Amino acid sequence: MSDLDASSTIGGLGEAGLLAEVFTRFADAAPFCTPVALGPGDDAAYVRTSAGVVVTTDTMVRGRDWNDAWSSPSDVGAKVVTQNLADVAAMGGVGTALLVTLVAPPSTTLSWVNDLAGGIAEVAARAGVRVAGGDLSSSDGEVSVSATALGELPAGVASPVLRSGARPTDVWAVSGGLGRSAAGLEVLRRSEAGWFPPQEHAGVSAAWVGYHCRPDPDLSQGPAAARAGASSLIDISDGLVRDAHRVASASRVHIRLQSSLVAPHLNAVARVLGLESAWECVFHGGEEHVLLGSFAPASVPPGWTVVGGGRAVDDGDPQVWLDGAVASPGGWDHFAP
How far from the centroid of its chain's Cα atoms is residue 125's Cα? Predict the structure, then answer.
C-alpha cells in the first residue's frame, strides 16, 4: 500500500490516482508465468495464445452476493477470482489472465479498494494468473465487482469438457467437500439471531464460515478430471442438485444421486445445524465451487467421491433423482423472488 491516507476516498483520488494505486497490487502477481504479454495501461491487454481460449465472467453485487458485516473487501476480491477460475477448471482448463471491474460511489474509501485488490492479487498469484486490466465506473450507491477470466487447456487436455458429454453408463463424482459454504452462511444467519454453535463444534463452524466468505477449492482437479477422461464437468456454484439438472438437460441423461454416498458430509453438518439444514446445505447449497463430473466407472480420479450413477432417458425430460425420487432443483437463482 502507498503512503496515501487509507481514509482517502476514491472520489478524492480520481480515476488516474486510483488506477495507479491499485495497479501496484497486481504488478507482482504471476508476472512471468502466464501468456499475458501486455497488462494494464493501454486500451486493451495482449495475451499470446497458440490455441483456443477459455473465457468466463462473474459479477458480485454488495447486499446481493455479499454482506459487509460478514465479508471483508479482501474476501470479496478472493471470491470473485475463485468463482471465475472454478468455471475455467470446469472446462478442464487453467487460468491465464484476469480482467477486473469495479463500480462504486466516489465516497468509497481507498482502504476498502486496496483490501479488495489485495484479495484479488492473493488468489491470482496463488493460481499463477496475472491481472491484465479491467474497468472502473462510479455509481450513486451500488458497489459491484466483476471479473473476466481467460484460460487455456493444459498439456494432455485435447478439448474442453462440456456439460453435454455425459453418458447413461457413467458414474457421477465430486472433487471435494459438499455443503461447507452453505453451512457457513447458515451459521452466520443464525449468529445474527443470537445463536452460537456448541463449543465442541466451534472450530468446524468457523471453518465453514471461512469457506463461505473465501472459498478455496482445488482448481487443479479440472485438468485432472479432463485427463482422466471426464465426459462432463460443472462447477457447483448454485447447488449440487440444480447444477446436476443443468448437466442432465445438456446431456439428455437421468442422474441418480444417493444420499448414502455423501453421508460423511451430511452427518458433519447435521451434528451442528440439524438434519434438515444438512440436507439443504449438501444438496442445494451454492458457492461450493468444487466440480461435479461424469466418468466411466473405472476412471474416477483419486480423491473424488462418487455420488451416484446415470440412466438413459427413454422419453420426457431428463431428471435428477435423489434416493429414488425426482429432486426439485432448489439452490440459488439470481432472479428468484
Answer: 17
CATH homologous superfamily of 10-152 equals PurM-like, N-terminal domain (3.30.1330.10)
Q: Could you tell me the CA-to-CA distances from 51 to 98, 152, 159, 293 in Å, in that order? A: 18, 8, 10, 24
Q: Under a CB-based contact definition with an 8 Å cutoff, are residues 69 and 158 in contact? A: no
pLDDT grade for 314, boundaries at 50, 70 and 90: confident
- Average pLDDT of the chain is 90
What is the DSSP track for 249-290? Answer: HHHTEEEEE-GGGGHHHHHHHHHHH-HHHHHHHHHH------
The percentage of residues in the chain with a pLDDT greater than 90, rounded to a whole number, is 75
- 186 and 277 Cβ atoms separated by less than 8 Å: yes
Pairwise CA distance, residues 62 & 23, whole Å: 23
- C-alpha closest to that of 231 among 278, 320, 317, 299: 299
16's enclosing H/E stretch is helix 10-26
- Residue in the block written with cell 432448489: 330
For residues 238 and 331, the answer to whether their CB atoms sit within 8 Å is: yes
What is the per-residue burial (b if ≥16 Cβ within 10 Å, else e) of 107-143? ebbbbbbbbbbbbbbbbbbbbebbbbbbeeeeeeeeb
Whether 202 and 208 have beta carbons less than 8 Å apart is answered as no
User: Tens digits of per-residue pLDDT, 246-269?
Assistant: 999 999 999 999 999 999 999 999
Residue 32 reports pLDDT greater than 60:
no
**CATH topology for the 163-326 domain:** Phosphoribosyl-aminoimidazole Synthetase; Chain A, domain 2 (3.90.650)
Torsion angle of C-alpha atoms 274, 276, 281, 282, degrees rounded to 10: 100
Residue (of 90, 79, 97, 89) closest to 36 by Cα position = 97
| pLDDT exceeds 60 at position 91 | yes
d(CA 85, CA 83): 6
Instruction: Please state the domain extents for the chain.
Output: 10-152, 163-326
Cell numbers found for residue 317:
425430460
Q: Please provide the distance, in angstroms rounded to a whole number, between the alpha carbons at the two ends of the chain.
A: 41
